[in-house]
Each structure stands twice: as structure tokens, then as C-alpha cells.
Write a structure and sequence with these properties.
The structure is a homotrimer.
Chain A: H1 3-20, E1 23-27, H2 33-43, E2 46-49, H3 53-60, E3 65-69, H4 75-91, E4 95-98, H5 106-118, E5 123-126, H6 128-132, H7 149-166, E6 169-172, E7 177-180, E8 185-188, H8 201-213, H9 219-239, H10 244-257, H11 260-266, E9 269-271
Parallel strand pairs in A: 1-2, 1-3, 3-4, 4-5, 5-6
Antiparallel strand pairs in A: 6-7, 7-8, 8-9
Helix pairs in contact in A: 1-9, 2-8, 2-10, 3-4, 8-9, 9-10
Chain lengths: ~270, ~270, ~270
């Protein structure tokens, strides 16, 4: 698809979300439970937050997508993710993994790798160091300095190899987002620096991906469209805000109703040639 | 009481809350802990969030009302509710139950029913499908289609029978809220569609009920007044907001200081004849 | 230092925070995880929320400061604090304790005292009754009536004795904040009544102290500067808000960028003679 076609596709996916209001099951961290539920609602889907082992099977039987996030992780919550992921996998619904803090501590790194090996994850979204921690040899790439051009190339190469080998979509977010399924790749140039001054905005990006994957069967397109929409909402929010507090409020407002005109003009979702 | 008397009563209850600043003990879900604490403070009461088994007895000894909410439930938290509920019941303070997700999974349905059977609940507030899941035969009423007129009548009938049999107040919230003690019933016509696009606003309604029940001895009147006030605050918030983010902010502002004039003119708390 | 020197020092510390973006490890309560992470980011530091026993040692190895908060406490979380605190203590990084609810239940009081005895706490911040519950004889001072002048003197005396004996900084916040290391004391006259109508603003003050202690070696100065900055941000926020919802949003905005001019003119951080 061309950049223009991807803008149109983004609008189509949003209309589908608002028509079907898919149920997005989150097993996520304590910091962002409220904010990601609000991102889900602003986009037009319906959030369910649940983690009790006793209801993972029942809950996973009627949801449209599963969003896993390993912030504030404990072993109990990891087991919740495995339980829900097995059912989601059997049902064939998309599963999104946000490996928060993978690479920072062994608990997180091992948890992310265990989830990837036991659950049929559809999309992984993280920052460069989180994504790098997931692939073989990732330990050897220095985490500091990931913004250098050399490292950006290394991360993209690693992400592409991992995506191809594991048959997943891998999204590396940062100043420019990079999404790949191992064969085709897309860059997203939407976004704003203020995202970094509000907690949970990365987790919110993963939630946006989950909402888009709930109705769009191609996870590469769904992921790129979600990141474009989310980034553009941030750009529009920044225009009417005075700092991180008002930015977050305006972000929810923008996610709720960016106009199709704004999207056609300002989305920057670009296939990598 | 007439509609006008109920408006006056709402104002009186609010003045009492602000005078005594009652302590509202919440055992609630992770998604809404922050937002319901802020609803409590905006209304003029004082929130306490605590769930450790070791302090349930001590904490319940000096609070004015107990708010139970089964979102993000696990067995540990259910036991916290039972422990706190026993002490609250012995002390005779009001106990409000929000059966979030009852009917959706067996864990939730059985938890809500266990709480109702072991704890002297004063008020239950839920949406139609949650309330329907609580009463005998509730399983047989289809959950889908609860907005049809036929179902609305069935739910109201069920709620009235349950309220009379169990000697509780039952509140079914939706486009029009319905509150009953089994003998008298009240409709609340305040509210706004934007409530549905912000997470935890149903839980916030239960918190408002808790604040009102802390100072008003008649739980039917307290519940109706709380839902009227909360719904009207939403109407006023919607006037000055651009989407779900600014709506939530404006909701806290409105809960903090709706004028008596606005309340007398716009509250729609109507006895059902 | 004089009041004017303390204003200048506050600006210097802020510039240091924004230069180094120190990692602030929070083990805190469910109500404020999101809001204190946002306070951290608005001030210019980086929050990490983690509590799993399995990663307390690894996480504590690369953080700049540890923030402990006993709201919504359970024994598991207390053990997390002890585990992280031991490593933080060995590394010599500052540790801030917010004894939320100490004095209200034995669980909280005993937890706060255990933390103080087992972990080398740098700063304790609480309201008068929380701080009073921590020192020997604290039980005998009436908790009600802490705003009377007599009690204010008693609390300040107790805080000063405790600070000197335990070699810690003790901060008692209220209408006028009081910070002491047992030898020198500082009053902070910044602040606003609206702080009391938003949940977690006391926890946010402790987070501000943690951010300031991460880069300023003198914890008395760091604590006083943090409380002055946080209080002044509240004053500025109150000017542009209509109630508790918009106040909280404006508070984040103000924490993000109070001008140096505003700080030099309006900070009220006064050495006690």
C-alpha cells in the first residue's frame, strides 16, 4: 500500500472499531490500567481488565483481542498471561505483547521470552532496548546509545530478522516508529516529544494496536495504522495543551474524534522501500 | 417525596457530607482506585483505600460507609470484602456493592452472590445485565438486548422483587436510572452519553451513592439523590468539554461545586407512581 | 541559607534533575501509581514502578533514589520495600518514606516503624498524625486537634527530637510545612487548599522530595526545596483551574515549567531561627 492508501485504511479501521466496539482484554500493569482503559474507550473499543486465574478461561472465551503488558509484573500475573494467552491462541484472536522493562531485570526479560515461546503472539511493541532484549544476541548490543544511527540500523535489522523467524509483527517505537513483519516494513513519522513526559503513553500505543488488530486481519497494517493514529492524536493534543497534564487530557479528546480530513492530510505512515 | 422535594433533599445531603466529611472505605478495583478517590473528594467526603486482611477489622472500626466493587477481583480481595463487611455489618454502617462484571464470568457472579448472602448489603448498583445476574432466574433473561422496552420492564420487575425479598435498595443504571427498595421506586433522568466513554464512571456512581448513604439514613433517597447529582454533574461537564479527557476533568470540577440553583432547576429525580 | 538562597538553590536542583533525569524507584500504593509517575515525569525525572521480590535486587542496582509509600499496604509489599531498601542502603542512595495511614491501623504503624528500624531512611514525610505515630510517645499525643497551636508545637518538637536521634530528615506537611534534620529547621509557606481535594497529592509531595534528593546531597535542603516547588506549582495551578479536576491537570503543567522568575518571586522557603 502507498502512504495515501494507508491513511484511507486507517480511517476504515477506525470506522470498523466504532461499529463493532470490540472487547479488549488487558492484563496490564497497575500504573496504566486506568489510562489504557481510557485510550480503549476514546478510540471506540471496550476495555476489560481481569487477571484472576479463576476467570482467565471464561474471560478469554468472548473477547476480541488480548493485550499483555509486563510492567509491575509478578509471577502470579505472568501465569495469568499464560492462562489467557493459551485460550486466546486456541481461539485464534490476536495477542499483543508490550515487554515493558525487558532487558532491565532478568524477571522481565525472562518473562517476555517465556510469553513469546509459549503464546502465539501477533504483535510485539516496545522501545529499542526492550525489543533488542528479546532477540538472540540482543544482550550484546549496547542499550545505551540506541539513538545513534548505527544502533537504529542494528535494531531494525534485528527486529526484521526476529519478525521473519518468529512470524510476528515487531514494532519498535521512538522518534520514528518502525513496524515490520520480516518481509514488509513501515515507518511512522507521527508523534510528539510530549508523549515522553506522560506515564504510560507507550502502553497506550500498545492498546491502540490491540484495538486496531481486533478488527483488521493484517497485523502489519493494523499496527502501523494504530501508531499513526495515536501519534497524530498526540500532535493535535500538543497544539491545545500547556504541559503534560493538559496534553494527556487533550490526547484522549483527540483519540475520540480526529476528523477524516486531519487524518488524510497529516498521517505519515510510510512503506519502507 | 415529590421531584422538587427530592431536589431539596439532594442539596441538604450534600451540605451534610461537606460538614462531616465522612470516611468512605473502598475495597475496589485497580482501574478506578484513583478516580473513585477523586470522586469522593470532589463530593466532599474522605476516601480510604485498604484491602490487607490484617487491617480490615481495625479499618472498619472508624469508617462511615463501606464501598465494595468486584472489578479486577481475585479470591484474596473477595476475602477482604467479607472481612470488612462483617465488621461494617456489626457496626450497622451502610454497605454498597458494585457487582462489576457479574454475569460475565462465574468468578464474578459467584462472588457477588456470596457477598449478598454473607454481608448485610444496603444498596446494590449495577447496569441491567449485572443486576439481572444477581437474582434467581436472572440467568434465563437474555443479557443481549437489555435496552429493549420488554427487557427494561423485566429488569425493573426483577429488581423490585429482589429489593423486596432481600430488603435492600437496588439501583439499575443506564440511560434512565431506576432505584427501588421493593415498595417505592424512583427514576433518575439526569446523565449524559459521554459517561460511557470514560472508564470507571459506573464505579464512580457507586462511590457517589456511598458518600450520600454515609449521612442520609434512608438508602432509597440517598441513592436516588446521589445518582441525580452525579448525572447532573456529567451534564454540566459535557457543556464545557471537547471529548472524554476533558469531560472527566470537568466532571470532578462539577461534582465539587454545582450551585444550588443549578440543582433546583435541573435535577430530574422522579418518584415512580 | 537565607530564603533567597533557598529559592536559587531550588532552581539549581531542578536544572540538575532535568540534566540527569534520575531514575526514581517507587514501591507505592495502587491509588497513586499513575499520578506519582506523572509527577516524576513533570518534574523531569524518570519513574520506575516495581515490587516483585524477584527483581528488587536487580532493580535497586541502577536506580538513583527509592520512594517507599505504605498506602494500600499488604505484607508482600512491605517485604518488597525491605528487600529494595537493603540494596538501596548498601548503595548509599537516598530513601524516602511516606508513612500513609500510620497511626490509623496497627498494620500501618508497625510497618512504618519496621521500615525505619531496618532500612536507612533519609527522609520521612507525612502529615502531623502520621509523623506523630512514628516516634516514641507518639501514641499519647491526641491525633484529633493536630491543627491547634499547642499540638503544632508538640509535633514540631517531637519531629525535631526524632530527626536528631535517628539522624534523618523529618517533614511534617500541612498548611505550613515544617522540615527538620534535628539541628536546622525550615518552614515552607507555599501551598494551596485545593491540594486536599485531589487524591495522592501528599504522595506526590513525597515523590517531589525523592526527585530532589536524587541530585542534591543535603536532604534537608532537597526536601525543603521540593516542598516549596511543589506547593508553588499548586498555587499557580489554582489560578487557572475551576475545581479539583482542572487543578490536578494544571498542577502537572506547572510542575513541568514554572519559570525561574516565578520561583524567585514566589517561593517561600524560610529557615526557622
Amino acid at each position: 500500500m502507498t502512504e495515501k492508501e494507508l491513511s484511507k485504511k486507517t480511517i476504515e479501521i477506525l470506522l470498523e472499531i466504532r461499529k463493532h466496539q470490540p472487547l479488549v482484554h488487558h492484563i496490564t500493569n497497575f500504573v496504566v490500567m486506568n489510562s489504557t482503559a481510557n485510550v480503549t474507550l476514546a478510540i471506540g473499543a471496550s476495555p476489560i481488565m481481569a487477571h484472576a486465574h479463576e476467570e482467565m478461561e471464561a474471560m478469554s472465551a468472548f473477547t476480541s483481542v488480548l493485550n499483555l503488558n509486563i510492567g509491575t509484573l509478578t509471577p502470579y500475573w505472568l501465569d495469568s498471561m499464560i492462562l489467557a494467552g493459551k485460550v486466546a491462541g486456541e481461539r485464534g484472536i490476536p495477542i499483543i505483547l508490550d515487554p515493558v522493562g525487558s532487558g532491565a531485570t532478568p524477571l522481565r526479560t525472562e518473562a517476555a521470552r517465556r510469553i513469546l515461546s509459549e503464546i502465539p503472539i501477533t504483535v510485539v511493541r516496545g522501545n529499542a532496548s526492550e525489543v533488542m532484549s528479546l532477540f538472540a544476541g540482543g544482550e550484546k548490543i549496547k542499550i545505551r546509545g540506541v539513538d545513534s544511527m548505527e544502533s537504529v540500523e542494528a535494531v531494525r535489522h534485528g527486529a526484521t530478522v526476529m519478525a521473519a523467524e518468529l512470524r510476528k509483527v515487531v514494532a519498535v517505537t521512538g522518534e520514528i516508529d518502525f513496524v515490520t513483519n520480516g518481509h514488509s516494513s513501515i515507518e511512522i513519522h507521527n508523534g510528539h516529544p510530549m508523549f515522553r513526559r506522560v506515564t504510560g503513553t507507550g502502553c497506550g500505543a500498545s492498546t491502540a494496536i490491540s484495538c486496531f488488530c481486533a478488527v483488521e486481519p493484517d497485523p502489519l497494517v493494523a499496527t502501523a495504522a494504530a501508531l499513526g493514529y495515536y501519534g497524530l492524536a498526540g500532535e493535535e493534543a500538543a497544539k491545545v495543551s500547556n504541559g503534560p497534564g493538559s496534553f494527556q487530557v487533550a490526547l484522549y479528546d483527540a483519540l475520540y474524534d480526529l476528523s477524516q480530513k486531519t487524518m488524510m492530510e497529516k498521517l505519515r505512515i510510510r512503506p519502507v522501500r
